[in-house]
Write a structure and sequence with these properties.
- Keywords: Antioxidant, Disulfide bond, Oxidoreductase, Peroxidase, Redox-active center.
- With 179 residues, the chain is an all-alpha fold.
- Helices cover 73% and strands 0% of the residues.
- The two termini are 28 Å apart.
């Protein structure tokens, strides 16, 4: 199984997602590690076990063990951070004077180039809907030299993966429903 299996599993109503997934995995703007790390991290962020399994099958042939674990680390740490910073932001600054008190060592030492980890964190944050984290990570990757096109491609990738996860969830939930 693999990305090809995901495309095969997508029904007619998700034809655009199938086409978009096919084109994003042939990305030329992101290097191979950035692309596949983003695919792993965003698939993990969706929580769709079928998508995670299929993406990981291909990614394990491409990414080093360190990069693979860093991508999963980005999804995991952003799950925590996105809830925290999004919620703190919703409270209109009333708690901005409070110490965060959350361990985030992986951000300082992810085991891959910082700009790759930050790119994956930004993509995951876009799925999780935290504009504070999206903006923060985007600033870091741009300062590290990634182009606007590369950043935008990571955002497109995240949106495609979120849509594919939704379509697969619908397919799995409606398997026994006949129309």
């Amino acid at each position: 199984m693999s990305v090809d299996a995901i495309k095969e599993a997508l029904p007619e109503f998700a034809k655009d997602l199938k086409l978009n997934l096919g084109s994003i995995v042939r990305s030329t703007e992101l290097n191979e590690q950035q692309l596949w790390g983003a695919l792993v991290a965003t698939a993990a962020a969706t929580g769709n076990s079928r998508l995670i399994k299929e993406i990981n099958e291909d990614a394990l042939d491409i990414l080093s063990e360190q990069a693979y674990n860093a991508a999963l680390g980005a999804a995991s740490i952003m799950a925590m951070n996105n809830v925290f910073y999004r919620t703190r932001g919703q409270l209109d600054g009333k708690y901005d004077d409070q110490r965060v008190g959350l361990r985030m060592n992986i951000i300082a030492n992810p085991g891959v180039p910082k700009e790759d980890f930050e790119l994956w964190s930004m993509a995951v944050s876009s799925i999780n809907g935290c504009h504070f984290c999206v903006g923060s990570h985007e600033a870091v990757v741009r300062e590290a030299g990634l182009s606007k096109t590369a950043v935008f491609e990571a955002i497109r990738l995240a949106s495609i993966i979120a849509g594919v996860a939704q379509a697969l969830t619908i397919v799995d939930a409606t398997q026994s429903v006949s129309v």
